[in-house]
Specification:
globular, mainly alpha
């Protein structure tokens, strides 16, 4: 398989992870696994870690599984898929945990139109502390209306 196929698979995987993040967030985190996600909307503990961080572990296991499928010659494009999932997870960590929620005090002064739109959309998501009536479940793809303000 050519290098270009692997690069294409990486970008497709990264892009599909935005859909997976939206779907998981809307139907699983705000659904039957709300008990793991609830502390992200309303902090009920003194720990830096949240039960919500378990979702990171899930996607890390999925990514590692694709690395192993590649390593053991079971799936040739497994490396590209694993790196795509990992890269999205890294982007999610920087955007969500560091930039938006300031779990580390970095990127506080980002002031471009995209950064403002991401923060506005996420703020709208967190205005609902319960599992119902949520909005803006994605992370990197932001509805156009948040760019207009």
């Amino acid at each position: 398989m050519s290098t270009w196929v692997h690069i294409l698979v990486f970008f497709i995987t990264f892009s599909m992870m935005e859909f997976m993040a939206w779907f998981t967030h809307k139907y699983i985190m705000h659904g039957f696994l709300w008990n793991l996600h609830a502390d992200h909307h309303k902090k009920d503990h003194d720990s830096w870690f949240e039960r919500n961080d378990a979702f990171f572990i899930f996607y890390a296991i999925v990514s590692i599984s694709f690395f192993l499928l590649w390593k053991y010659n079971i799936l040739e494009i497994g490396l590209a898929i694993g790196i795509g999932i990992f890269a999205y997870g890294l982007a999610y960590f920087f955007v969500h945990d560091i930039f938006i929620h300031q779990r580390f005090k970095l990127f506080r002064n980002a002031d471009n139109i995209y950064a403002k739109a991401v923060r506005r959309a996420h703020k709208m998501h967190h205005k609902h502390i319960g599992k119902e009536h949520g909005e803006c479940f994605g992370m990197l793809v932001v509805p156009w209306k948040y760019f207009k303000k």
